[in-house]
Amino acid sequence: MAISLRLSRGGAKKRPYYRIVAADSRSARDGKYLEQIGTYNPLLAKDDPARVKLDEDRARHWLGVGAQPSDRVARFLDAAGIRERAAKVNPKKGEPGEKAKERAEERAAKLAEAEEAAKAAAEAPAEVDVPEAETASTDTPAEGAETPGEADTVETASSDQPAEGGEDVVEQAIEEQAEAAPAEETAAEEAPAEDTAEG
């Protein structure tokens, strides 16, 4: 029969209290035990002497018989000076698991995408200004360009009057065209409404 020194849980829900027992290693955790050699109350402060109580003589007896302590009981025995516990070396202790690494990679990828988007947004306003200037220039006629209808007025004005003083005629025609333009625009706006009413 293999004997182990281990903790057996007692107490209420969310209020644990443990017995340190010598038990058959095949028996249930909270089942039969051979002897209780101490107690452990995790609810007490770490520096409280009542947190761990051990009967050193009985612990030494069971260790002499060949009982194997669990990791937690081995820590208690080491703290009490009964049996030295070899320090375990786990180089991967602070290393995150595989899923945590995957989540970290996803976060890094999202951050990289966000930075690229921010750079693109920072560069975009300079590029957007150029098309706006182009659209503005297409909406308004260029200097010296004739708007539709302006050429007709200039031609009619110049054909009605003699060629002498042609510059004055052109200026008068442009002024007349500017005055007539608002009236033509309102007429053009009203025309589609009439067409839809007829249809």
Characterization of the model:
The longest helix has 42 residues, at 98-139. The chain has three domains: 3-80, S16 Ribosomal Protein, Chain: A; 96-140; 145-180, no CATH class. By secondary structure, the protein is of the alpha+beta class. It has helices at 56-65, 71-80, 98-139, 150-160, 166-198; strands at 3-12, 15-24, 35-40, 52-54, 68-69. The chain has a five-stranded mixed β-sheet with strand order 4-3-2-1-5. The model is unreliable at 193-199 (pLDDT under 50). It has five helices and five strands, in the order E-E-E-E-H-E-H-H-H-H. The chain starts with a strand and ends with a helix.
Q: Which helices and strands appear, and what pairs or packs with what?
A:
Layout (H helix, E strand, L loop, with lengths): L2 E10 L2 E10 L10 E6 L11 E3 L1 H10 L2 E2 L1 H10 L17 H42 L10 H11 L5 H33 L1
Low-confidence stretches: 193-199
CATH top level of the largest domain is: Alpha Beta
Please give the oligomerization state of what you see: single chain
Radius of gyration: 48 Å
Total count of domains: 3
Supply the CATH superfamily name of the largest domain: Ribosomal protein S16
DSSP, total strands: 5
Strand order of the largest sheet: 4-3-2-1-5
Distance between the termini: 104 Å
Q: Given the helix and strand composition, which structural class is it?
A: alpha+beta
- The CATH architecture name of the largest domain reads 2-Layer Sandwich
**Fold-level CATH name of the largest domain:** S16 Ribosomal Protein, Chain: A
Order of helices and strands: EEEEHEHHHH
Strand residue percentage: 15-25%
